[in-house]
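Exercise: predict the fold of this chain.
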Amino acid sequence: MSCSPPDCFKCPCGRDAPCSTAGGSGPATSKPTPGAGPTEPGFTDHVADDTTESWGDLEGQTSETNDPDEILHDAKSHDWDHAFALMSGGYDSMAATHYTYHNAPFALDGVIHIDTSIGLRETTEYVQSRADDLDLPVHIANVRRDADEYATRIETYGFPGANKTSHKWEWVNNKDKPLQTLLQQFDGTTLLISGATREESDARYEKVDASGLELKDGHLYASPLAAWTPADVRAYIDDQGIPRSDVVDELTHSGDCLCGAYADRWFELEMIHEEWPYMWAYIQSLEARVIDSARNRNMKKESYEDYVLWGHGSTTERELDQRLGKREMTLCQACEPAAPGLGSGDAFQTLTEAALQLDESDVPDTETAFRDAFDLTQAIPDDSDEHPLEVLRRGYDALDDVADRLGYEDHTELVEDRALEGVVLEADR
């Protein structure tokens, strides 16, 4: 190695955490207060440029955002062959699907859910359950090129950071490409019901037309709840008795895409570690791969070595190579508060992050040092055709069953108890 880990991998401090989304009461028609944090791009985002294609009279702007019924009736007046609701597992898309199902002057042919390959399986199950409630079939969009796979891209570019460029390309590869691939299976034009709301953020206000309709890639997108605020959406969910998502209630978002672009590493990894340990294990496995890629100079550019940790929070534009200047602080305990799950007083969220603090002499000088030590997916048979996330989750579920039979609340309690027991036995010697 030509440099020690503290010199090779810089501290991810200095992030700008996304602001919380402001709520409201009652349907709103004015632009929201600036300051709403960055949110996931909706299906109304235009990938190539900011020009919105027109479909007849949709080119004109209206003074106020149309109401849900008006948007759905306008959508019906256009020519399309199939109608699907896009459901991410979040409350916006759930409310839009439910409202459309019960109030639209047309029937839905089904639900489309996108498997980003870096999302919680519980989110997919929630979508399936809510679609079953409406007796709608679910189509999973999960086909993408190997080069577009999240796990493949991060070994070349590192984990995405907290900027619009990184976030947009995560959306393109994780969501839009597999969606467009799925839509090719259906002949003709498709109407897609989106949960995008104009009042969610400044970005959404600019992207979602006041008419609630947009033509993109030859398909018509309708956002019936365009005028609703987040408070309106939640009120509708509660009033209609729609079961709430445990994932949304814990993470405040759907959990369908945990790419880490705008993630609050300290908050989200703690939550993920406690509630969905299989995902925490997978993220740590991915970090091990990316760190090895950086150590072996396999990344596209040397500057991408700044991005070896999930949710690093850097606001630099990695794709545009707007690299930060030399940072004086390397990974250190002063960077973040103590994180549960790694032992009392431990200041690191993942073991891979802690390993970056080791002196060069303590780090095995092999091409796969981090992968060998921390990539739990290596235990999965090579001939397995399942996604690593599914295998890891099944393993944790099985461990929970064992813990239950032994009288523990869950596997975490079992592991902690056995770990303490081991410490006691060692002390007795």
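Check your answer against the key: The mean pLDDT is 78.
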